[in-house]
Amino acid sequence: MYATTMDALVQALLDGDQAQAISTTKHLLAAEVAIGQILAEGVEVAMAQLDAKCTIEQFNLLEIMLCGRAVMGIMKELYPPDMPVQPTKAAVVVATLEGDVHDLGKNILKMVLTASSYRVVDCGKDCPVERLIDTVERERPLAVGISGLLTTVMPQVRRVRQRLAERGLSYVKVMAGGAALKQATAENLNVDLVAQSAFDGLHYLEQIVGGGT
Amino acid sequence: MNSLERVIAAVHFQPTDRVPVMPQVFGHAAVLAGVRLGAYLRDGALLARCQLHALAYYAYDAVFALMDVNVETEALGSTLTYHPDQYPSVRSYRLAGAAKLDTLAVPDPQRAGRMPEVLKAARILRQTVGRDVPVVGCVMGPMTLATQLLGIEAALYLAIDHPEQFADLLDFTAEVGMRFGLAQMEAGAHLPIVFDPSASPEVIPPAFYRELVLPRLTRVFTAFKQAGAPINWLHTAGMTTPILSFYPNAGVELANLDFCVDPQQAMQVLPQTCLDGNLKPLLFVEGTPAEVAAESLRLLHLFAHRGGFILSSGCEIPPESQPENIAALVHATRQPR
Ligand code: B12
Fold it and tell me: What's the B171 CA to ligand 1 centre distance in angstroms?
């Protein structure tokens, strides 16, 4: 019974059916299934299937957005706002830098990481590098994820590591992605990773955390 | 042949003295003239002056009365953040939260936001270039304006959760584009380019495009044609191959190809539609004149037999581009065939 409910959750997430996903999650919680188990056997299983389906050539944005929204919905069930700090793998600070308003890619990244139990701190779009660095200093994340669709932000991206180092934050990994940045190399941008997709970023973090593939 | 005649002839697959070249020089015109982008985007007279300066400098075949992708949404009540040297961004979307579509009215282009400045730019450009050079205005396509009123994700979720409401929104945004475009033509623009990046298959599936966007786009282009636009020009950014076949039915006569689109494939799908493109925008920033020349010649060869081609960049030429690279693009069309 519990296994079939978990399957139903995975299916609801893959269907992007938020209402169904929430009601299934409520059932699981009522049956005293642990939150960690819902995440590991429900949410992460759904994300893995979506990851496998979404190759660079065949990338269905709406499908990911709907799944992401359903995941965000059940996260609210699992961790109501009044609940103290949630157990997470690590924090990641994401941003689109000053002058760039393309935030769809960043928001997809946020959903993918949240669904995989990272705590994502979003600096929004059009974000000056200094605000990003201040946020990193406050949040002490494992990594920052910069999304850039305009080539004009490249010089800002190249500055990030240096500014982190000046504040003693060199241990924070820097990931870059989005249509403009993915045309460049990691050396050229002075970052640790240039990701082709949001799942690339996820795989990279999982490697650092040592938790998965 | 002057530029306007050359461009119109190319669009109709008629012989030309040389292939027309229309690099998408928008904000770069400010940088070239030593004017701050933030000022250029708010002052139609300044914009026109910079555009004319760039035209004289490069000697290509069009001028653009075009600011950025936020003019319509600002005129409708969204608030923007301006920067001294970058394009502005939307700070608050007019239809965010619970705001209802029926609280909006189609803005009067003579009054609303920066629309009058765009009209001023069109007027000055036309007074100066007359019938020699195409004066190209710009309106947002229905999908892009919808995403600029709601925010792109909220717009996509609305389309899925409440398709009827979304269809109403697209009817409205098409109406805004029509009215603004017609005002640009009255002010002197020969045609408005329709700019619809958010309708790209990178964002929405082709079936969504066909069912929801295409009918409204058709309405917009029909209105421009009736008002005497010599050319209907559509610009959809990104990997558009899956939707190109829809263009002719919408009345598109000139289709912009972004750098990721294979021009040969586009030619097959659109045998009777003039194409413009498609050098990689980044090449103008980081490439060399020799690379730009080589890429340009490759395209000129590819289209040599077919015709129906205008040499251009795949999308906007980034403001910070190297002038030598744009000059190399223009120069490629001047070489003896
Ligand atoms: C939709 C769109 C818009 C919308 C954006 C709405 C929004 N809120 O995001 C609007 C209409 C506002 C817009 C505006 C403009 N745009 Co635009 N736009 C696009 C378009 C068509 C699609 C972008 C998109 O959303 N893709 C879908 C998302 C999901 O993909 P993605 O961002 O790549 O993200 C994926 C991965 O890359 C990854 N990812 C992304 N970031 C990160 C980060 C990390 C760390 C990781 C791990 C992964 C990751 O995750 C995602 C899923 O896998 C692109 C075309 C293209 N080829 O990308 C042009 C494009 C980005 N735009 C372009 C331009 C020029 C503009 C304008 C400047 C036009 C103008 N003259 O005003 C303005 C910019 C204004 C500004 N200040 O930024 C150019 C940029 C060229 C350049 N100079 O670099 C592009 C590339 C078109 C082109 N070929 O030239 N645009």
Answer: 25
Could you read off the pLDDT of B211-258 as tens digits, one per residue? 999 999 999 999 999 999 999 999 999 999 999 999 999 999 999 999
Say if ligand 1 is within 6 A of residue B152 CB.
Answer: yes
- B277 CB within 6 A, ligand 1: no
In chain A, how many domains are there?
2
Give B-chain residues touching A150 at CB under 8 angstroms: 318
User: What's A160's domain CATH number?
Assistant: 3.40.50.280
ipTM score for this prediction: 0.80
Same domain, A73 and A102: no
Interface list for A 148-177 with B (CB within 8 A): 150-152
* Total length of chain A: 213
Separation of A102 CA from ligand 1 center, angstroms? 5
Task: Measure the CA–CA gap between B21 and B2, rounded to whole angstroms.
Answer: 12
Q: How far is A31 from chain B (nearest CA, A)?
A: 31
Nearest to B19, CA basis, from B28, B7, B31: B7
- Please work out whether the CB of residue A95 comes within 6 Å of at least one atom of ligand 1: no
**Cα-flanking dihedrals φ and ψ of residue A163, to 5°?**
-65, -35
Q: How far is CA B148 from the centre of its chain?
A: 16
- Domain enclosing residue A183, as ranges: 91-209
What pLDDT is stored for residue A213 in this prediction?
Answer: 42
Strands B309-313, B233-235: pairing is unpaired
Contact B86 A98 (CB under 8 A): yes
List the CATH code of the domain at B3-332. 3.20.20.210
Co-location of A167 and A199 in the same domain: yes
Quick: pLDDT tens for A189-211: 999 999 988 989 999 999 998 85
